């Protein structure tokens, strides 16, 4: 199942369309002392990899895509086509991250991760909202939250479906 989010409404309308659980997560993250860093550089990608691998180990799942191949692609892409990396920091550690790609008027969520230290930070809520704000500024109208199996991964399905 793929979830597409229509970004054509204004931010206030998008926010009001979220489910209450998602709004609470975003409010909690906004009250915390979280900092968001975004870019496309190799160091950000490496920092994301650390928490991604931590999450894969914690959850014990087999990723559907080889993230290292995406790292090789990132190094070869021209700057305007590079994937966007957003990291959420809590004090001195990266607690959550996401990687997306936007070309033209559409964007896709490629990878997301919450590190062991970020399990209570709600950083993923803040990252998705910051990404949505950025995509809207760039004129992106469709945000593809990527495929999800509601039976095999109900938590991630809930997170994505309550956003969109």
Q: In short, what is this structure?
A:
With 164 residues, the chain is of the alpha+beta class. The protein has helices at residues 11-16, 20-31, 42-59, 67-76, 123-137, 154-163; strands at residues 2-6, 34-39, 84-90, 93-103, 106-114, 142-147. The longest helix is centred in the first third of the chain and has 18 residues, at 42-59.
Provide a count of the helices: 6
Structural class: alpha+beta
Form type = globular
Give the low-confidence spans.
none
What is the mean pLDDT? Answer: 94
Distance between the termini: 13 Å
Task: Give the helix level as a range of percent.
Answer: 40-55%
What assembly state would you assign to the polypeptide chains in this entry? single chain
Beta content comes to 25-35%
Beta strand count: 6
Rg over CA atoms, rounded to whole Å, is 15 Å
- The run of helices and strands is EHHEHHEEEHEH
With strands numbered from the N-terminus, the spatial order across the biggest sheet is: 1-6-5-4-3-2
Question: What is the makeup of the main sheet?
Answer: 6 strands, mixed
